[in-house]
UniProtKB/TrEMBL annotation:
Name of protein: Dihydroxyacetone kinase DhaL subunit
Entry's Gene Ontology molecular function annotations: glycerone kinase activity
Single GO cellular component term: cytosol
SUPFAM superfamilies: DhaL-like
GO BP annotations, alphabetical order: glycerol catabolic process
InterPro entries assigned: DhaK_L_YcgS (IPR012737), DhaL_dom (IPR004007), DhaL_dom_sf (IPR036117), Dihydroxyacetone_Kinase (IPR050861)
One family name in Pfam for this protein: Dak2
Organism: Ruania alba
Domain DhaL: 8-207
UniProt keyword terms in alphabetical order: Kinase, Transferase
Keyword Kinase listed: yes
Amino acid sequence: MSDLLNVAWARAWVQASAAVVGKNRMALIDLDRAIGDGDHGENLDRGFTAVLAKLEAAETATIGDVFALVAKTLMSTVGGAAGPLYGTAYLRAAKAAPAETVDAAGVADILEAAVGGIVARGKAELEDATMVDAWSPAAEAAREVATSGGSARAALAAAATAARTGAAATEPLIARKGRASYLGARSQGHRDPGAESSALLLQAAVEAAEASHG
């Protein structure tokens, strides 16, 4: 059985993402309430619920088609900064995704493109206590697996682990971007909700790969 990822995986990732966001909606709200306006979980849940509905009715021939659908839907349904940031990430990922199947290098390409979109939209850097702190190490971890000849699923697993570590590492940081930056030193001790949701979504990608692999 091929270890390459295909459009079935991409669709399964959307389904797993909607499920994990729904499950963690209140936890994300609580994280955001501590340092922001408390709407991150609600907004993201609404966005992925809309994505799931559109996906069920859409014909998606390629992985890029799936990501483009996610991007456009999140941009139109998710308020605050999350909509444009996630939307741009998925839009860049759509452009970077191979037409048919994805190997480890393809996983790295997709994640690196997503990081580029987030940075371009949000102007954040590593250790600004944002989504970048989850996505950037995830992309690096995937590239390391690809360079060493690992599989696509191994690349995703490494990315998800790095994202979880990166999200946890935002807690001692002073936020330098986003609404949390208004708090200055008071933002320390709080995990960035965007980094946490990013880690959840990347873990969903791993689960989708395992499910689609059978």
